Amino acid sequence: MGVSEVMTIRQKLIEVQKKIGHKVLSTIKKDLCPLKELLNSYAVGFDASYSKRYGGIAVATLVNINTNELISYAIAMGEPPLEYIPGLLAFREAPLYYTAYLSLVKKIKTTPRCFIAIIDGHGIAHPRNAGIASHIGLALNIPSIGVAKKRLYGIEKVRNVNKKSKISIEGYVYDPKTDEPLAAVLVPNKKKRIYVSPGAYITLESAIRIIQLLLEPDYRLPTPTYYADLISRRISRCLDNGRCTPETVGGLQRTLEHYANTNRA
DNA sequence: GCGACAG
DNA sequence: ATCTTGTCGC
């Protein structure tokens, strides 16, 4: 594209994603961290809610993969730099996630060799293989997995494989251009389905294994994003009804950690 | 030109 | 994501 060509913001961001997607695909052929080690590590979950008064409320949770227990969490809030545009979600939400992650790492004492990031949204199951989970994985330099509630891109094929395992795999989503599998369609409970795709630094197979472990009976979302969703919504609601302020939300920490753990089956 | 379209 | 009442099911 020549230097004199006019590009809209949208077109520039799409070009950025093409480069990200290309790099991401080279990182998901093998696991950066051995699966055996990941299974005994911690997951960092990300989700966001939106407050009418304060903008985006992003939450990063730290969960023990073996026990599904919420260990800690950190929040970040601020006006999103971009409106929501299908395919460009990362440019809207990733900045706040990044800030929340830095805050979380700063407050926890132990630093496991291998973290795994779980993001509410897609990884490589994206038009340019650059979903928000891929953006996060590259930015944080840790393996990441995208868990979405709705399909964005790709052809869904029902296969009904792995009926044996507790959380069954209903099928896969394939890339119409390469015919490669991009995501697995899991069925956490009778009616709800979720789309699991690698973000970066992890294979689809390992991503599926991890998510199956993080899904508790009858819960649609894996615990890391489930807790993040719960906490971010409580905080944005608290801010909007005036019962707390940005300065006092930190005081909710102990209460919400306990709330999340006890509110679980 | 006509749909599809993460959160 | 958010706006919102009643309602089906355990």
Describe the 3D structure:
This protein has 265 residues and is an alpha+beta fold. It has a single domain (31-262), classed as archaeoglobus fulgidus dsm 4304 superfamily (archaeoglobus fulgidus dsm 4304 fold), CATH 3.30.2170. Helices cover 34% and strands 25% of the residues. It is built from seven helices and nine strands. The protein has a nine-stranded mixed beta sheet. Helix 3 (89-107) packs parallel to helix 4 (132-140). The mean pLDDT is 91.
CATH-defined topology: archaeoglobus fulgidus dsm 4304 fold
Overall number of domains = 1
What percentage of the residues does DSSP assign to strands (E)? 25-35%
How large is the radius of gyration?
A: 18 Å
Instruction: Look at the helices and sheets and give the structural class.
Output: alpha+beta
Order of helices and strands: HHEEEHEHEEEEEHHH
Helix amount:
25-40%
Main beta-sheet strand count, sense and barrel state:
9 strands, mixed
